[in-house]
Amino acid sequence: MSMGLRPELKQTQTLAPRMIQSMEILQLPMLALQERIEQELTENPLLEQTEVEPIVADDDSDQRSPNDNRSEDERELVVNDNSDNKDDFERLENITPELPNTFDEPFRRSSNQMQDDADRRHDLMANAQSRPESLNDYLLHQLAELDIDDDAERIAERIISTLDARTGGYLQTPLADLLTSDHSAADYEVAERALQIVQSLEPTGIAARSLSECLLMQLRPEFEHYEEMEVLISRHLEDLAANRLPQIQKATGYSIELIQTVRDELQVLNPKPGSQFLETHVPSVTPDIILEQDEEGNYQIRLDDDRVPSLNVSDYYRRRLQDPSCSPEEREFIKRKVNSAQWLIEAIQQRRSTLTRVAEAIVAHQKRFFDEGPEAIEPLKMQQIAEKVGVHVTTVSRAVNDKWMQTPRGIIPLDRLFVGGTQTDDGEDVAWVTIRLKLQELIDNEDKGEPLSDDSLVKKLAEQGMTVARRTVTKYRKRMGIPSSRQRKDWSLTKK
């Protein structure tokens, strides 16, 4: 081993800061873009939001001078013979002294900006969802109303603390683990009594240690087939889940019709009683693109960016750069902030242009999908759109990532329009979505007494010109939540 210096030629690719910012802006969805712009408006005093004020018509509108629309410092001096123009000259003298010598102090927002922020925070608090009651809180409130001894209450609280709504509210911790290592038999009896107390709370079936125990806790004598339900849950739950009804018939002597009736009645029981306390978060979706159809049936693309403010660079600071009294430090600060503002404005314009072109190319390719529905969707890869638009495939990926399009068929994510596919025997491209729809159609129309196996489904698809491997059929069937042919079999329709 030795250490030394030697020349070496190497080719590298470096992204300019402007290109990095452009890619970041392109990838942002609408709400995130609005937040980014608000942050830049707060941090960059040279960046201004263009506000179009409504025109108020009055009798003096035609006689109003163009100078009236200018700021106080931009208005021309007007000589008035009836006064000594003291106010005008004082304003002129105060223009330069009012400008700060250094920009190290934080930028002070205008009263309108502060009022907008206050209104936004008020709306956020007003629209915020109240925190729902958790499973643990719900059980603790019920426990507090019971008259039980302190030892049992302490263990019951410990049991409740281990329950999780995400697992259905099952007790997954052994009782012995909730006690001290040197616990006695009497302590274990207290723990069992505490568990019975917790299991008596609502929702029924809570703190069960197994699925069968959870279902048995929910049984009531008023059920029509109470005894049969108890037998199936206690002894044949696995066979019932696997649709092995003949084995249950042989072991119990029940008829197939009775077993199916009892199985249907079991559907009213909740296998995960604690899951009702799960917090369901429904994210708000704001479409970035609007797809509309004109009178001639052609699809038109427009960006829903009305909520994105128009930005410009302050003319005041541009003129300040030309002022000889501007210090080097101040000049450097203004140049840096001007460049930052211009980069952001150009990045937003580039985002608008790229999104429009990508969306137009996608809609042109998937026109049959919007005309006829999901069964007409065609295979599409991002590389195809990249070649049509003339950009890199990663640019297309960023453009469609987390972007939504409002269409006549609802609001859909852009990336869902990119689907894989295969070719039929006739050489026609067909999307996997179409194959899944055809698979669902075959299963819906099958003979439930003799359901189609995966091999049979492969043959049925091949008869329609779709060559698909058996493992692909099995994979899609499982993804679609369709059970196997054994589990779909209706034994009451089986030929004897």
From TrEMBL:
<keyword id="KW-0808">Transferase</keyword>
<dbReference type="GO" id="GO:0016779">
    <property type="term" value="F:nucleotidyltransferase activity"/>
</dbReference>
<dbReference type="Pfam" id="PF00309">
    <property type="entry name" value="Sigma54_AID"/>
</dbReference>
<dbReference type="InterPro" id="IPR007634">
    <property type="entry name" value="RNA_pol_sigma_54_DNA-bd"/>
</dbReference>
<dbReference type="GO" id="GO:0003677">
    <property type="term" value="F:DNA binding"/>
</dbReference>
<keyword id="KW-0805">Transcription regulation</keyword>
<dbReference type="GO" id="GO:0016987">
    <property type="term" value="F:sigma factor activity"/>
</dbReference>
<feature type="region of interest" description="Disordered">
    <location>
        <begin position="43"/>
        <end position="118"/>
    </location>
</feature>
<dbReference type="GO" id="GO:0006352">
    <property type="term" value="P:DNA-templated transcription initiation"/>
</dbReference>
<protein>
    <submittedName>
        <fullName>RNA polymerase sigma-54 factor</fullName>
    </submittedName>
</protein>
<feature type="domain" description="RNA polymerase sigma factor 54 DNA-binding">
    <location>
        <begin position="332"/>
        <end position="489"/>
    </location>
</feature>
<dbReference type="InterPro" id="IPR007046">
    <property type="entry name" value="RNA_pol_sigma_54_core-bd"/>
</dbReference>
<feature type="domain" description="RNA polymerase sigma factor 54 core-binding">
    <location>
        <begin position="126"/>
        <end position="317"/>
    </location>
</feature>
<dbReference type="GO" id="GO:0000428">
    <property type="term" value="C:DNA-directed RNA polymerase complex"/>
</dbReference>
<dbReference type="GO" id="GO:0001216">
    <property type="term" value="F:DNA-binding transcription activator activity"/>
</dbReference>
<keyword id="KW-0731">Sigma factor</keyword>
<dbReference type="Pfam" id="PF04963">
    <property type="entry name" value="Sigma54_CBD"/>
</dbReference>
<keyword id="KW-0240">DNA-directed RNA polymerase</keyword>
<feature type="compositionally biased region" description="Basic and acidic residues">
    <location>
        <begin position="62"/>
        <end position="93"/>
    </location>
</feature>
<dbReference type="InterPro" id="IPR000394">
    <property type="entry name" value="RNA_pol_sigma_54"/>
</dbReference>
<keyword id="KW-0548">Nucleotidyltransferase</keyword>
<comment type="similarity">
    <text>Belongs to the sigma-54 factor family.</text>
</comment>
<keyword id="KW-0804">Transcription</keyword>
<dbReference type="InterPro" id="IPR038709">
    <property type="entry name" value="RpoN_core-bd_sf"/>
</dbReference>
<keyword id="KW-0238">DNA-binding</keyword>
<dbReference type="Pfam" id="PF04552">
    <property type="entry name" value="Sigma54_DBD"/>
</dbReference>
